[in-house]
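A further point concerns the way the authors explain their paired sequence and structure data. Showing the layout once, in full, would remove most of the difficulty. For illustration, here is how one protein appears when written out as sequence plus structure tokens:
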Amino acid sequence: VGTLHLGCPEDCALEFDVAALLAIVEGAMSSEIFELMKRSDEVAVVERAHRRPRAVDDCVRAMITGVVERFAGLPDAAFVSTAQESTETVRGHHLTAERAGLLGDLRHELRTGEPVVPQTSMCRWLEAYGR
């Protein structure tokens, strides 16, 4: 399960729709997920997942990259929160990866490879920039 939150400061005029966020989340995963499919379709989904294997942390990084690329016009003060959860039915464990912060900090991390410390939480962002 992928989760993506995007928060804009009050003075942000950029408009976007939920479909853009959904495309980023879906594009970050190894393959599409279907509740119900025909057996003939199952092969294509499994093959795609094997060609593009991604762990939960890979999905989170891909979502952040997707936001940075898709929303280049957003100000550095915008807030991004991503999470990916994976429930393993065979091994019996549950994995979660999360990352949140100011868009400017995340851009810096992608550009330099160096994490920004401390990371901005949603509560801290809402206190500073929220409505």
Remarks:
- The mean pLDDT is 85.
- Helices lie at 18-28, 39-51, 56-70, 103-112, 122-129.
